[in-house]
Amino acid sequence: MGVEMLALVMLVAFAAGWVDAVVGGGGLLQLPALLLVPGLAPVQALATNKLSSIFGTATASVTYVRRIRPDMRTALPMAGFAVAGSFGGAAVATVLPPEVFKPIIVVALLSVAIFVAVRPMMGAATSLRFERGRHLVIACALGVVIGFYDGLLGPGTGTFLIIALVSVLGYDFMASSAKAKIVNLGTNLGALALFIPTGNVVWGLGLSMAVMNMAGGYLGSRTAIAKGSGFVRVVFLIVVGVLILKLGHDVWVESIAGRI
To answer: I want to staple 14 with a disulfide (CB 3.0 to 4.6 A). Which of 77, 103, 116, 212 is the partner?
Structure first.
């Protein structure tokens, strides 16, 4: 790897850590950059991305826990079920092409973006839905579903978690970002439990990127805490828009390739 490529990957790792700490979706930056590295197979890029990301996610999680003090009675069980979901998604990915799900996800994302955009007060303040027992059951179910998505496809997992926590459970954007980091940490652990034994992680590159990802994650979480839910909402809509364009482009390219 040349110096220019290494510098690009390190810069992207920092930016990805920042974005991921605020609203999720850092993999949209980091994974494409890794795919540009000469000689790196796609599965190695995916595994190395997870290694780097877990350090940034852990850093952001600790910062949020110390400063926001999210309700761990919801976050931890949700994270546990998300780990199980990510294993299931990875298993399905081995027998069913992820491309089958992409058009559905694009439509869902577009609907959510419009819904959040036209309701400016949504996520401005916490207004929890459902009584405690049902609240926890729904949170765990969401953890399984989004963990499954992370194992199957991956991009924007943190963003999907924030969508679910705001729109379904009634948390504000700040509390949702904090909980999303904890749950996303679980999904990353689940993925690495599969990738490490298979030898797909490029440790030197992954750990070097992890340092930058941690720095970005720390700065991103501090920025989100300082700016508040309104700032997180704006960045959320931007990241969702990018995710729609990215997955929409994938669907378009795959449909064209299928006709040739």
So the answer is: 212
